[in-house]
Amino acid sequence: MSVQQNQLITDRRIARTKQFISEAFLALLLEKDIEGIVIKDITERANVNRSTFYAYYSDKFDLLDHMVKDKLTQLTALIDADRNESYIPDFNAPDPFFVLLFSHVEENEAFYRVLLTRINPATAGADYAAFLLGVIRDTFYARITALSMDQKQAVPLDLLLDYISFSTFHMARKWLEQRMVYSSRHMALQLTRMSILGTYDAMGMLRA
């Protein structure tokens, strides 16, 4: 067996071990708060020894940090690969970004349920949910800056970005809290329609 083949086998074994550890930690985080979890809980759930855990992570917070960064890097890569600068809003077709975002959250429900509803920033040492908010904000910023110079915003850019990114982020969080009673596509379509209509028109205040 070649050196390259041996390295590939080793890399796969390491990746599989890290996956077992991450999945075990995620399952525990769905059951109890992070401060109530010790390394022994994680290693026993993952069926690995303590030395294996410490070969990759310094503590449970380091593990959480890696998990969040890996997942949001994956989301960012999906957004970059699917970026459509020529998107034209359509009332009857969901915005591709909303589709991608809510589908990704749905496919990784356990992770995002922990990230958005179970992690206390004061305990975890970082506001990890804010990292997702940053990804959403950056996506809308890229879309706005790709517009031609004559397509000027009617309100200050910073306020516009705050409004659309916070509303999208909190809709995703509420959707998870309510056990995703609507499909991801339905959520994407409704956010698209609310974005097209604007708040007052969606409330019916601008209709005769």
Q: What are the salient characteristics of this protein?
A:
208 residues; mainly alpha; Arc Repressor Mutant, subunit A; 11 helices; 0% strand; elongated; DNA-binding; TetR_C_Firmicutes; HTH_TetR
Main sheet: strands, sense, barrel: none
> Termini separation (Å)?
77 Å
The radius of gyration is: 21 Å
Report the sheet-strand fraction.
Answer: under 5%
Label the structural class.
Answer: mainly alpha
- Approximate helicity band: over 70%
The tally of beta strands, per DSSP, is 0
What features would you describe in this structure?
There is one protein chain. By secondary structure, the protein is mainly alpha-helical. Helix 4 packs parallel to helix 8 (about 130-145) and helix 5 (about 95-105) packs antiparallel against helix 10. The longest helix has 29 residues, at about 5-30. It has two domains: about 1-55, Homeodomain-like (Arc Repressor Mutant, subunit A, Orthogonal Bundle); about 60-205. The mean pLDDT is about 90. The protein has eleven helices and no strands.
